[in-house]
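EI: anyone free to look at a 419-residue chain?
SC: sure, send it
EI:
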Amino acid sequence: MKKNILVGVTSGIAAYKILDLIKSLKNKGHEIFVIMTKSATEMFSKQDFEKVSGNKVFVNLFEKNFDYREVLERRKVEHIELADKTDVMVIAPATANIIGKLAHGIADDFLTTTALAVTSPIIICPSMNVNMWNNPIVQENLTKLKLIGYQIIEPVTGMLACGYEGVGRLEDVKIIKNEIVKQIQRGNSLKGKKIIITAGGTIEKIDDVRYITNRSSGKMGVALAEECYLRGADVLLLRAKNSVEPRYLIKEKIFKTAEELFSLIKENIKNTDFFYQVAAVSDYKVDKSFKGKISSEKSFDLKLVPQIKIVDQIKKISPKTFLIAFKAEYNLSEKLLIEKALEKLKETQADVIIANDISHDDRGFESDNNEVYVISKNGSVNKIPLTTKREVAKKIIESICHSRSSRGSIRPGFPPPRE
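SC: here you go
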């Protein structure tokens, strides 16, 4: 399938190798657009990149005779139009300069301005001197980009243009091309599928000022919603009011209480293929909430009563929906965590349950990282070791796709056809 691939070229010596990358992608039938930094054009011919790509190479934000009135009249901005039609963006070679700019949201040329407007996957391919690569500032900037979802194809060890030998050499263009192709395939893997994902923690009213809640940030649910969106799915995110927000224009509806969440589920679950129940729903609600503001001058007793378990209702209201439930436990051994998850899987009639231990500060609630166990009906367990929640989201979806494809009669990642 033909895709629009945007290639950003910066002023690294390895940029000459990108001509071969563009040729290879063109031979696969893809449309290639190139942005070069001004420094890159001092080192390499813009015409060479135009010749191999077959398209104009973009360099300047403002061409000669730029007139803002034309922009206002046409309502078209070149770098935004380019960003909107991009299916995958790759920056190769990526210098320490471009990495630093993107990590801090600096948009001062055509490449950085376009990159910040792109909502499709972005692949960064660093290339630089070994000492620059090992500089803690560069590594900190790379970590920032990883946390927000950029894919980093790290450089390899070899002889560098500066005469040093060490890590900093651009990865082989064949490997870069393969990663681009994987991103394209990933972008179609859930196309046409309706997916609902819940995220964040519910609140339960005590009085008109106070409420009880939990520590859920919504980061895991939002990461899953973004990953499904990038795979072409029709995603509806049911997000708690206090949850983090997605980076992309994903359809969403906001809830506060468990009752509001359950109402949204019942309204929208019809014909849903996958349902990810990630939200941390309060197990209790206040038996009787108070009007106004309770005085703080004296103590009072607060009675909590159990709430309906929303996850237990999903299969009852939509039996054919593939249900992925989450189970959070506190300070359990791996064996006991899995046993508890299997019990919950049976109770909820879920197809897959994701279990994690929230007793560690470096993972789970509020953290950017997580470690989970993906457990299916047949008892198979796939551990996803500690990594970013965005990477966990990707591995969860891949794990579910793999387990379903192993059944033989079902296409990877897809529920059985509806009757």
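EI: DSSP finds 15 helices and 20 strands in the chain.
SC: 👍
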